[in-house]
Design a protein that fits this description.
Blueprint: H1 2-8, H2 13-23, E1 45-50, H3 60-75, E2 78-83, H4 90-102, E3 108-111, H5 116-125, E4 131-134, E5 145-150, H6 152-166, E6 171-178, H7 181-197, E7 202-209, H8 220-232, E8 237-241, H9 246-256, E9 259-264, H10 267-270, E10 279-285, H11 287-299, E11 306-310, E12 317-319, H12 330-342
Parallel strand pairs: 1-2, 1-3, 3-4, 4-5, 5-11, 6-7, 6-8, 8-9, 9-10
Antiparallel strand pairs: 10-12
Helix pairs in contact: 3-11, 4-5, 6-7, 6-12, 8-9
């Protein structure tokens, strides 16, 4: 993964193109084993720009990586990856995208709303290159940009209901990585779901950082400290919408003998085995599906544009059942899910 940072710093186009050719796809350990010589070949070259935490965060970025890996295996596309670093300037994100564009990568996928400003600038500079951005819709009218967004509030409603149904203390918590409108959607849905079950439930809320500091998505130590405070204060279940910082929340839950809720990926299957048993469920945000479907259209000859929303009706969001801890309440959760799909419940997007 550190190779991606080196890649992003290359400024000479000729050297960059040579390095990308030499590196190829050998670094992508996340792919399932394919069919060897039977793997199809494509002339599509994808540039993937991850957010803070990158591949290996066991959450948001890893979900995007899984979609890329499957597309590589199924379609034989070439890909190069790079990631944001804590505290980097906006110019660094812009440079990362320019580097991909200059090297001939098309499309370029930006993972996370923090890339919005950079994508807007670089898409204008390279009108013949196609971009996709995850979790941002402000570029909906830009002709060479596709916005892949999710109804996070709907999935969060379901895990909020699960938390209220399972809480013995009628006291739960929410930890957001960075206090931005996107993460407030998670909070709003979680609170609405919990209160739909128990209007009197107590919900503690904290955010690890404030913009422009986005380190809250990749700081397990901060996540652990925040969760410890909630558990000490009486909460028995904490939902972590904080990317890689969620690992610290799981550690705190394990130490306290309490429970936690993961986010984006099924974190029961991705977290360290030592904390797996405290992960009651996870809010699934199927970024992998969005990335794969986008690349499938590209391989088919179409570059999508505009906004594509992944909600409960298309299984864009949902909840995980791994570990069996919510098997006894899935009927109730699915009833809530259907009511949301049918429009009987409108989930708020702001706290």
């Amino acid at each position: 993964m550190r190779r991606s940072r080196k890649f992003a710093s290359i400024l000479t186009v000729g050297i960059l193109a040579l390095g990308a050719t030499a590196c190829g796809d050998d670094s992508d350990s996340g792919s399932d084993s394919g069919g060897g010589g039977d793997t199809p070949k494509s002339d599509i070259k994808v540039g993937m720009a991850y957010d803070v935490g990158g591949r290996g965060d066991q959450s948001f970025n890893d979900s995007a990586a899984a979609g890329l890996d499957k597309a590589k295996e199924d379609f034989g596309i070439e890909a190069e990856e790079s990631e944001a670093t804590d505290g980097e300037a906006e110019s660094a994100r812009e440079e990362r995208l320019v580097t991909f564009a200059e090297a001939g990568y098309d499309p370029i996928i930006a993972v996370g709303f923090a890339y919005a400003e950079s994508v807007g600038k670089v898409a204008a500079q390279y009108p013949d290159t196609h971009f996709a951005i995850i979790d941002d819709s402000t570029l909906a009218d830009v002709p060479n940009v596709a916005s892949l967004v999710f109804a996070e509030e709907q999935g969060s409603f379901l895990v909020g209901a699960a938390a209220a149904l399972k809480s013995q203390a009628a006291h739960v918590g929410f930890i957001g990585g960075v206090q931005v409108p996107l993460i407030e959607k998670f909070q709003a849905g979680y609170e609405a779901g919990a209160k739909a079950v128990n209007p009197d439930i107590k919900i503690d809320v904290t955010y690890l950082t404030q913009p422009p500091d986005f380190s809250g998505f990749g700081d397990p130590a901060k996540g652990k400290t925040a969760a410890e405070g909630m558990y000490d204060n009486g909460a028995d279940i904490v939902y972590a919408a904080a990317g890689g910082s969620g690992g610290g929340v799981f550690e705190a839950a394990s130490d306290a003998g309490k429970l936690a809720i993961g986010v984006d990926s099924d974190q029961y299957n991705t977290a360290d085995p030592s904390v797996r048993d405290v992960i009651m469920t996870s809010m699934l945000k199927n970024v992998n599906v969005a990335v794969y479907n986008y690349l499938k259209e590209v391989v088919g000859g179409t570059f999508p544009t505009g906004v594509k929303t992944y909600d409960l009706s298309v299984d864009g969001v949902g909840y995980a059942t791994s570990g069996g801890q919510i098997d006894d309440i899935t009927d109730q959760l699915d009833e809530f899910k259907q009511k949301i799909i049918d429009g009987e419940i409108t989930v708020p997007t702001t706290p």
